Amino acid sequence: MNFVQLANHASVAIFGMILSTAFCDIHWTRKKALALSGGCAVIFLFQGIIYLEIDLEITRKLYPFITHIPLTVMLCILNRKCLWPAISDLTAYLCCQVRRWLALLIVSVFSGGIMLQNVSELSLTLPILLILIKYVAPDVRSISHYPLSVQCQFGLVPVLYYGFDYLTCTYTNLLIEGSLVAVEFMPFVCCVANLFFVVYISAERRTRNQLEQTQAVLNLQIEQAVREIATLRESQEKSNTYRHDMRHHMQYLSSCIENGQLRQAQEYIQEIYAKIEANKVTLFCENEAANLIFSAFARRSEDCGILMQVRAEIPRVISLSEHDLCVLLSNALENALHASKEQRKKGCAAVIEVSMYEKNRKLFLQIINSCGEDITFDQGIPVTDRAGHGIGVHSICAIVEQYDGIYSFSAKDGQFILRISI
Fold it and tell me: Along the 422 residues of the chain, how does pLDDT read in single tens digits?
């Protein structure tokens, strides 16, 4: 073995070690860097001894045991993971083919021999390594934070190539002898990997589209709820203004009575009363946001001929944010009102009973409403195949889970029951 060939073997070993480390997501400290450098130096030294003292062919067959396995073990210890360091090592091994293929291309163009190939590989090592570390390694490391299924999909090709290379080129001569199974294996792997990629991307896209549609509907619901609260607050302010100006109304009425204009005074009283009632906000509890939402839905229920009974003891300050309380109550009451209106259309009685109170810093909510018998549950959650429906239930569940609360849905004897504890 001449010096150039020996240097080339050393360069590919260093290339693989550095790139494996760059692909592995490790929080580096001085101690870890020194430990890895020392370990790689020992591996490299052991490789050199075997290269010089033992037959090169034997060294190639022992390479996984004297290089890849020790390097993977060190990366596992530093990374405190098992799967990703192995994938990093095998991916770096696959990337070694970049320098080899480019060198073969140069040899083919310039009609060179083994010497030109070794020189080309040696010359390409550093530029390719720097390019991969700067432009590819960050994206590869990011995959280590994906679910295990994604990591396995990414590592599939490096694993298959590693096994294929050693089985057909190192431990046997199947590829050199032109065995059809060996020759066609990697194209088959590329085809399968491509198909898996297409299926995975399509599934991800469908999921993303569904999430985007759900988010869009939720945003509309939130905007509507916020507008509703703003309108109710404005109505409450108007009512407060009317009460504040009551003394002026009394003065006017007193003047009408003193002048014998009783009919005009009566009409004025009716006019003021109608304005106040139109903007009336019923007081259900101390909490302003909950009170406004209850008032809005009570008015809507009354307009639909549905009896809505509210028993609420909610303090002014609670653990839920006003935004989450708005979404939670609005979705729950909207679902109850929708189901009750469906019952009214069928000529059945429709009632909504709401109980909500706070105890021991826990918020409890129960809503019972009239419903049909055709409710389907999936793992305790009501589901529907109607477009645009079911999102409110998911919003309720998401908010309750966000606060580590408990929810339950049930239906019995024509009544739907929602219970929530946050």
Answer: 578 888 888 899 899 999 999 999 898 899 999 999 999 999 888 887 887 777 777 888 889 999 999 999 999 999 988 999 999 999 999 999 999 999 999 999 988 888 999 999 999 999 999 999 999 999 999 999 888 888 888 898 899 999 999 999 889 888 888 888 888 888 888 888 878 777 877 888 888 777 776 676 666 566 666 666 666 666 667 666 666 666 666 777 777 787 777 788 787 777 776 766 655 556 788 888 888 888 888 888 988 889 999 999 999 888 888 878 888 898 899 889 989 998 888 888 899 999 999 988 899 999 999 988 788 888 888 887 665 556 778 888 888 988 889 999 999 888 999 999 98
Q: Are 419 and 356 in contact (CB under 8 A)?
A: no
Gap between the Cα atoms of 400 and 322, Å rounded: 14
Q: Which of 124, 143, 162 is the last residue of a domain?
A: 143
Number of domains into which the chain is organized: 2
Answer yes or no: is 181 within a domain: no
Q: Which domain holds residue 70?
A: 1-143
Distance, CA of 242 to CA of 252 (rounded, Å): 14
Which residue, of 78, 108, 143, is where some domain finishes?
143
How far is residue 92 CA from its own chain's centroid? 29
